[in-house]
What does this fold into?
Amino acid sequence: MSRTIWLGTNWKMTKTTSEGIEFVKRLEEIVGRVSPTIQAFVIPSYTSLHPIRQALGSSRLLLGAQNMHWEDRGPYTGEISPLMLKEIPVDIVELGHSERRAYYGENDADLNKKIHSALWHGFRPLLCIGENIREKQNGISREVLAQQLKVCLKDVTPEQAGQLIVAYEPVWAIGEKGVPASAEYVSDIHAFIRSVLQQLFPEYDIPILYGGSVNHDNFMDYLRIPDVNGLFIGRAAWNIDGFEALLDEVNRLLAEE
Ligand code: PGA
It folds into this structure.
């Protein structure tokens, strides 16, 4: 029972604050009874972060933000700064989700600034990477992923690298129209991501999570892959009963190991 398994959900724009509080209250109870080697986290909308932090108390459950500007202050209407997130405080800052890249023009160079800012302010950056369907069909998934990792993580020091979390989320596997990736594909790609991260930061085993249409039928197949350190789940975990079922199953798996 030694390995840590990360299980988290990004709520995207799906829950109001009162819905979110109800969810985390139940989740705290569940987290309290499962193995401490399961590291659960939730990533609500900005407006819910403070009330949810207040509701959480001293729970093991980690709290994350869905994005962050790299500057502490400035004329950036609609943006949220690290100082604002620090006051809440959050533990994790999710950066580079494919929806941010696709709809809001996030690019790897800006993500690099966000990563540095997040590390400087003591957050754990959860960097999302993934190839789109065209890139996969053109056989350049590995090149795309290596580029995303190398640009986003440029100049991160070995001392900071221990704070990083990476989520591999193939764009073609995410959301309603997503097609779940096969376990073989995830296994191959995670081994590749591991090799790139080991070249960059040989001192650390950075957690690599898998996300994209994870559901009750496929999650165990992904978790059995050696280079998968956890799952980043959308729809299948937005209902607390669904998330509870996943957490209980993973708890059983760990008890058997
Ligand atoms: P999904 O979302 O599990 O609903 O496909 C995953 C994600 O976008 O992180």
In short: The first helix runs from residue 17 to 33.
